[in-house]
Design the sequence.
């Protein structure tokens, strides 16, 4: 049995908090955040001691029509600079590049010319070969890189072992365990994280965790995997993210003992900006329809549709999911 | 390190689910549930495979004015019988008796004349001597008994050891670990549960867990302590309970693998009755104000007041809590 790293009072300098509010939260409002919102969130994150802020996706403009999405679906260099200038803070800037949905060969400047520090490559497990190519491309450009293997609750153990083997031979800096469907229990999440940590041992690579809150376990799974050595922790303000949302940043800021983290500024941001989003009708967070898809280990798309129609016939919806298992 | 009991696929016949909706949820609406609500919940619980249903408190009518509370603050024999008749189901009926706030010597019939099966004695750790006397009284009357030691996150280890020693010498059937302030992390909750389980070893007594959701950990802590051998699990429908509420029953029904448990009927109940409560303005559940009191390991009363005033100035409230630490 792996021993926990540190205890509840420890300060672990290897821990890095990544705020994914604009990226994962953008899936709730079509990435249509005001510049003021993003700028204030940036300032808040800097004051809170957050280590990385993810601004969104850099999606292919050939595949996606720019007029149909907010700008953070594309994260153009000039749009990020309009918020952060040259980013004079200690906080690093990340963007996400989806395998198969970005033009990575043409759309990224060398790091020396960009305000972006890290590119996170998101893929399903069968896309690892393409992810590897992208990682090496971004590494050659000078970026820190992560590989976020999504929907890992649907992958089998052999696939995961092979994927980790392949990634450990690349230049990737961080390998992420991603509970896309929010279907992992703490026992699963900690066992999987131990597999990732063991694979990366002696490679210098770090392991990250990205939670979803379908079973109300996003925070629990995050601190559980952390206790076994996961060090990159994704979170979003008030858990804003697709469907049931993510691990709430405020819970991590309250939990972590490192004095560099500060909860107060985030509360001010929540009062002023997050309550407004809710009032505007942006919806996310734990509810029964997401619990169902979490238990059934499947994509939340039907639950998102149920939510968007403001349906409350939970029992009928649950029955329909069981009929289409 | 204690080994987990069973795995995520196991059926553990020692597990007992206790629905505390009317009792802990009653703290949100002054126990003013309609008879229809309570009757339908009773029927739903029977169909769902719930093992125990707690109807409320049996509070002292000398101390509390009956006209100021709903009837489930007092749980008179005839009021319970109006709902369950002679309770022809396999589900057992529980009521709670608070140390210092009930007339236990006069207010309980012998079990042979009562439809109640179990009396749960709730106390703070310094009240254990009185709790012991009550337990023996109820045992002599023929009831199953529990002792629910509240606010254990504020007790020190010596006190807990002494309390467990005393209780293990009584006739009590179940000793409950109660996270009244919702301030335990899974690591704390599992360590404490191991202490309780070790103390009760070879006594035939069972250990229970009662969670609060201040840190969004009620379900996580419940299944974590269960995995180490806790067998009596308190939950409420949609987590309805004081402040941040409890472990949601629907999550436990979805999680547990015993075929006797069934989620579907509870969904029908939620649609028809719980949504109505919310619409009537009854408020409970995780929110920032409860997170603060959870982190600070204190009673939620100020957070409940904050909620009742519909305040949203989280940062000011947080500051005021820190100033009165």
Sequence:
């Amino acid at each position: 049995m792996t021993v926990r790293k540190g205890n509840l009072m420890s300060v672990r300098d290897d821990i890095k908090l990544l705020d994914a509010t604009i990226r994962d939260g953008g899936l709730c409002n079509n990435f249509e955040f005001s510049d003021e919102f993003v700028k204030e969130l940036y300032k808040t994150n800097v004051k809170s001691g957050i280590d990385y802020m993810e601004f969104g996706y850099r999606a292919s403009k050939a595949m996606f029509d720019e007029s149909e999405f907010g700008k953070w679906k594309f994260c153009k260099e000039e749009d990020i600079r309009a918020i952060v200038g040259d980013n004079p803070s200690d906080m690093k800037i990340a963007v996400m590049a989806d395998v198969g949905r970005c033009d990575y060969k043409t759309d990224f400047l060398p790091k020396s010319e960009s305000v972006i520090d890290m590119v996170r490559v998101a893929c399903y497990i069968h896309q690892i070969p393409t992810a590897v190519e992208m990682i090496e491309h971004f590494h050659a450009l000078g970026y820190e890189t992560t590989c976020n293997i999504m929907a890992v609750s649907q992958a089998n153990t052999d696939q995961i072992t092979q994927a980790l083997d392949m990634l450990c031979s690349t230049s990737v800096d961080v390998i992420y365990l991603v509970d896309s469907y929010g279907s992992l229990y703490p026992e699963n999440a900690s066992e999987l994280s131990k597999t990732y940590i063991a694979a990366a041992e002696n490679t210098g690579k770090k392991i990250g965790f990205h939670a979803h809150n379908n079973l109300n376990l996003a925070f629990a799974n995050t601190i559980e995997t952390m206790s076994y050595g996961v060090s990159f922790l994704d979170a979003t303000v008030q858990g804003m993210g697709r469907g049931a949302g993510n691990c709430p940043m405020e819970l991590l800021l309250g939990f972590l003992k490192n004095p560099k983290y500060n909860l107060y500024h985030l509360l001010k941001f929540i009062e002023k900006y997050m309550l407004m989003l809710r009032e505007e009708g942006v919806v996310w967070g734990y509810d029964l329809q997401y619990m169902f898809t979490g238990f059934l280990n499947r994509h939340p798309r039907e639950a998102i549709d149920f939510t968007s129609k403001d349906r409350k016939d939970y029992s009928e919806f649950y029955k329909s999911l069981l009929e289409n298992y």
Q: What stands out?
A: The mean pLDDT of chain A is 97. The first strand of chain A starts at residue 16 and ends at 19. Chain A is about 40% helix and 15% strand.
